[in-house]
Structures are given as structure tokens and as C-alpha cells.
Design a protein that fits this description.
The structure is a single chain. The protein has four domains: about 45 residues, no CATH class; about 190 residues, Nucleotidyltransferase, domain 5, CATH 3.30.420; about 100 residues; about 60 residues, no CATH class. It has 18 helices and 13 strands. Strand 7, helix 12 and strand 8 form a beta-alpha-beta unit. By secondary structure, the chain is of the alpha+beta class. It is flat and about 75 Å long. About 30% of the residues are buried.
């Protein structure tokens, strides 16, 4: 399984490699060339048994322990994420609604299924997969199809409402309700149509309901998941992994990647401090404060304040004192901060902007300038001041980019690298950890750190 992940092979290809490649025989325990192989479904069974065990990531954990014993894991961590494309096709609204209805009928018990079918009015048995037939270039025909599908979906939900359902049926009901609610709206005349909006956390496929639309940058989008890693920048050993839906923020899972390091940082000893590096996606005030509270050095890049308008004074040109509750503009006008319920504040300079000689350099708004102060403004200002230090910038530029090379190692194989091999966040999370274990083993070999004894992984996966 480790060699399979390292080489990006399918199950059948991995079994063939084991049968005919002497290197695989040697790596699997110096086996003879005529050692019998096995059918590819054994790998499917072993992955499932490993997933259900108490330590599903034991391979990654054991390899990491070997790296630590070899002195290759220090107290620096670099965090980053990369896109993992889902293993299914993104579906349109019509296909998802019909598939969700089919899914409910498929898992319903013999008594419930006929009752649901009796309420469905479309001329469709909902047995075959795929998109329903329609004159797609005819707008009226499309609208009629969407309305009919929606009515069948809501009719099916009405049948099961208030009933005690099995877990599989309950999941199918929730999926159908989610698909209907996220993509449809009802007009004044009672007809349903596709909503002119995009729902937050939108399901994009009924085959893999956990996959999401994601954006690595404003111009680069993808469908699927995000793979998150933490590495030691000196040895380039992966120390932690995680997988989330594609729309999850990087900062939201940062703590899970450095949980053990934060515990180490809290210990009062004379060792060097824990250093955490990350790009601007990790530069939130919340994460900075948590790192500092734990005694770690927060080398995450905090974004500069958004400019008011191009060529006009930014927020950095104003002197804000959150302790005194005041703000002073470049012209010297002092105003009080008006606190808001969420902890943020507003500084309103509008009354003074009318006669201000710097107005044209400050704002083009007819009502004047207004500042919105972040709830943790002091933390952000302190972090921005630190990252303007030339020594900090030099250290950051020498350390942070190393994680990009490691992500390249993880993603160099499309099958099982950039493209997920399976469905569902949990399975992909375990598979991603196995990939990291394989890459770590390759890194140990590249560093010349051989093993004095076999890894303690042989035996029953549930042991």
C-alpha cells in the first residue's frame, strides 16, 4: 500500500508490480521472485480494515516516530494546503435533484418505497441514472422540467416527514432536502425555478456530498477537497496532515496541524521556541493570538489593510488608539471610536471632511471618510510591524517556500495525488496521510537514514 501510494498506481497496477518487479519483492521483505501474489481486492479490504481500526493512520505515525528518533524533526513548522480534485463528476441542479430522489427510493424499505412512488407525478420511474430527457434549447420545457422535479422532490419529503427512519434513509432525506433548498426558489405563481444565487456551502454532487467548490486564489477554482500539511522545513519531513472540504479556510484547521507543537511550546523549559510559518491564509488575528498565548513564535504573514481607494490614504495613515478609544486622521482631526457588538469599531470623520484640505487625498465619498477598525486591531498592527523587519522577511523567505516543494512531491502523481482516489472526507483524509507516510519514507532514504529494524507494521490492522 505504501509503494502503491508512492508510485501513484491503481490497485490492479500495484498487484502487477508486486508480481513482476523484484524491487517490490525486496521492499516487501526480501521475498523470492516466485512468491505468490494476490488479487487486487485484498488492497480494498485492507484499507477498509485499517480505516475502521483504532489507529487508522498508524503507518504515518510510525514513520514519523522513526524520523523523530533519527533527530530529523525540530521545532519549526511550515503550514500550507493544496487542492485535491474529487473523484466524481460535478453535477448540475437537474441531475442532482433527480439523483437525490433516486437515492431515497433506493434505500427506502419495501413498505416505504411504493408509498413514495405513489406521490411522484413526473413520467419517470427514477430507476435509470443520468440526466432526464428534455428539449434543452426550449426555455419553457426546461422550466417545466425543473418545476416537475421540484414537486416530486418535495412530495417525497412530505411522505417521510415526522417518521422514524433508518440511518441510511435519514441521510438520503437530508441530501434531498439540501439539494432542493440550496438551488431552488418559488415564484409568486407557485412554480419552482433555479435560484439566481449560489448557496453557501453548496453541495456539488450527490455521489460525493462532502465535496465542495474551492478557490486556491481568486482566479483559480477547483471542485473537491483541500489537503493540509505541516512540515519541518529543515528536514522536509511531513509532521501532520488533514483534509477538509474545498471551501474550508486554511486558518480553521491550522491548530490541528500543530497541536502537539503548541503543547510543547507551553512547557516552561530552556529549549528553543516553537516557530510556526504560514502564508497570508493563516495570518488571522485569532491564530496569531493563540500561537502567542502558547509561547510559540507566530511567523504567519498578516495581510495589509485593504486600501480605501487606489491612490488615497489607507488605514495605516491613521493613528488609532484602541485603549483610549480614539482615531486621528492625517489632517490631525481626533474622533472617538464607536464600538460595535462584534468587538469592532467605527471612526467617523465625515463632519470634518467638508472643509479638510486633504479631502481629495483621503476620500472621494460625498459623505466623507469612515474607518472600520477590526476587533483585534492591535494584534494585526503588531504583526504587520514585525513582518516589516528586514531580518524577519529574510528568515520568512528562506523558510516558508520549502513547503511548496514538499507539496510538489505529494502531488507529482495525478492518480492518488492531485486527484483523490476515493470519496468522502474521512477516507481521503486517511489516504492523504498514507501518501505523506510514503513520501516521508522516500525522504528518509534520500537523507541516508536507514532503519535498523523493520517498521512495526506487520500484523492484523486491528491490532
Amino acid at each position: 500500500m505504501v509503494l502503491q501510494r508512492l508510485n501513484g498506481l491503481s490497485d490492479r497496477e500495484a498487484v502487477d508490480a508486486f508480481d513482476f518487479d523484484l524491487r517490490w519483492k525486496y521492499a516487501a521483505g526480501t521475498l523470492d521472485f516466485d512468491y505468490p501474489g494476490f488479487v487486487h481486492t485484498v488492497l480494498v479490504d485492507m484499507r477498509e480494515r485499517l480505516r475502521r481500526s483504532k489507529r487508522p493512520n498508524r503507518i504515518f505515525e510510525t514513520v514519523l516516530a522513526v524520523a523523530k528518533e533519527a533527530g530529523l524533526v525540530g521545532r519549526k513548522r511550515v503550514l500550507d494546503s493544496t487542492a485535491l480534485y474529487d473523484a466524481v463528476t460535478t453535477q448540475d441542479t437537474v441531475t442532482m435533484i433527480r439523483a437525490a430522489i433516486r437515492g431515497l427510493l433506493r434505500v427506502a424499505d419495501p413498505a416505504l418505497a411504493p408509498e413514495i412512488r405513489a406521490t411522484l407525478k413526473r413520467d419517470d420511474d427514477y430507476k435509470s441514472a443520468g440526466k432526464p430527457t428534455c428539449e434543452w434549447e426550449d426555455a419553457a420545457a426546461r422550466e417545466a422540467l425543473i418545476d416537475a422535479l421540484a414537486r416530486d422532490g418535495f412530495a417525497a419529503l412530505a411522505v417521510v416527514e415526522g417518521r422514524k427512519l433508518d440511518e441510511s434513509v435519514q441521510e438520503a432525506v437530508q441530501l434531498l432536502g439540501t439539494v432542493l433548498g440550496q438551488d431552488l426558489e418559488r415564484l409568486e405563481d407557485g412554480r419552482f425555478r433555479i435560484a439566481r444565487r449560489v448557496a453557501p456551502d453548496r453541495v456539488i454532487s450527490t455521489v460525493d456530498p462532502e465535496a465542495r467548490h474551492g478557490h486556491k486564489t481568486q482566479s483559480r477554482s477547483f471542485d473537491g477537497y483541500k489537503g493540509h500539511v505541516a512540515i519541518d522545513p529543515d528536514s522536509e519531513i511531513v509532521t501532520a496532515t488533514n483534509v477538509t472540504a474545498g471551501n474550508a479556510g486554511d486558518g480553521a484547521v491550522a491548530e490541528t496541524l500543530i497541536e502537539s507543537e503548541l503543547e510543547e511550546a507551553k512547557k516552561a523549559d530552556a529549549r528553543e521556541p516553537v516557530e510556526i510559518y504560514g502564508d497570508a491564509s493563516y495570518g488571522t488575528a485569532d491564530l496569531v493570538e493563540k500561537l502567542e498565548a502558547a509561547g510559540a513564535e507566530a511567523n504567519v504573514k498578516v495581510q495589509a489593510p485593504s486600501p480605501w481607494r487606489a491612490g488615497l490614504y489607507s488605514q495605516d495613515h491613521f493613528k488609532v488608539d484602541t485603549q483610549a478609544g480614539t482615531a486621528c486622521c492625517p489632517a490631525g482631526m481626533l474622533v472617538k471610536l464607536h464600538a460595535r457588538k462584534d468587538g469592532s469599531a467605527i471612526a467617523n470623520f465625515a463632519p470634518s471632511c467638508t472643509s479638510c484640505v486633504l479631502r481629495t487625498q483621503c476620500t472621494d465619498s460625498p459623505i466623507g471618510r469612515e474607518l472600520r477598525i477590526h476587533a483585534k486591531y492591535a494584534t494585526l498592527v503588531r504583526s504587520r510591524a514585525r513582518q516589516r523587519d528586514p531580518q524577519w522577511r529574510q528568515r520568512y523567505r528562506a523558510t516558508r517556500p520549502k513547503v511548496e516543494r514538499k507539496l510538489g512531491h505529494l502531488m507529482r502523481r495525478r492518480h492518488g495525488g492531485r486527484r483523490a482516489r476515493m470519496r468522502g472526507c474521512e477516507k481521503i483524509r486517511h489516504d492523504f496521510a498514507l501518501l505523506a507516510a510514503a513520501v516521508n519514507l522516500a525522504r528518509l532514504a534520500a537523507l541516508g537514514r536507514g532503519l535498523t529494524q523493520p517498521l512495526p507494521l506487520v500484523g492484523h490492522p486491528r491490532a
